[in-house]
Amino acid sequence: MQTVEDAAEPLEPVGRREQNKIDTRRAIAEAALTLARSKGAGSFTVDQIAARAGVSRRTFFNYFHSAEEALNVSTESFLELAISSFSRRPAGEPLLDAMIAALAATAKVQDLAVHGELFRMAAGSPELLRAQLHAWERAETRIIEAVTHHLQGGASPLYVSALVGSVLSCAKAAMHDWAADDPDRHGDAGAALEERMVLALSMLRDGFAHPA
């Protein structure tokens, strides 16, 4: 899958050893997602993931601490790519415009439908929900750093924290709204989720001036 970094600039060649690690991690994550789709989140074991990925139990734990962590790779990837995309926005660009543009750029190279699918799964899996919350908490710290850098130190810590908290709340509200909708209603689930997230951030940017 192409990444924001791929789209922005060529990547240096990766050595065979490092590429093997990337491929193994991806295979484990894909095996976890496949099992979650067929059995349901929380209804399969690490041994089943390892067997499906063609690796040993020991190898699994070299990459992940739990089945939920392996399953949560798409969420981690989405957040990481969005932050990376935002970090590349021009310094003088209005903050929320930069965030909306970063989200749109991320959506072009990241399958938001999978991220939304995992969000739906977490509603019935406390362990997966906990893993997702941890991912968002880690992302919040990174976003605060990126926003502080974007504003070149021209905002108080309270301003930055409050704004980032509001942005994340809008993103989560968009995902809740998307998850509550009929999954078969839209032909492109990823585009439907992107539309909601951009709309929620636009509402925040505009001061929630238009309730309709």
3D architecture notes:
Helix 6 runs parallel beside helix 9. Residues 1-11 have low confidence and may be disordered. Helices cover 74% and strands 0% of the residues. The radius of gyration is 18 Å and the shape is globular. With 212 residues, the chain is mainly alpha-helical. The protein contains eleven helices and no strands.
Number of helices: 11
Number of strands: 0
Task: Give the integer mean of the pLDDT values.
Answer: 87
N- and C-termini, Cα separation: 37 Å
Please report which band the strand proportion falls in: under 5%, 5-15%, 15-25%, 25-35%, 35-45% or over 45%: under 5%
Radius of gyration computed on alpha carbons: 18 Å
Assign an overall shape: globular
Low-confidence segments:
1-11
Q: Helix/strand-derived class?
A: mainly alpha
Order of helices and strands: HHHHHHHHHHH
Q: Summarize the biggest pleated sheet.
A: none
- Percent range of helical residues: over 70%
List the helices and strands and how they pair.
Blueprint: H1 4-8, H2 16-39, H3 46-53, H4 57-63, H5 67-71, H6 73-87, H7 95-109, H8 112-122, H9 126-150, H10 157-180, H11 189-205
Helix pairs in contact: 2-3, 6-7, 6-9, 7-11, 8-9, 8-10, 8-11, 9-10, 10-11
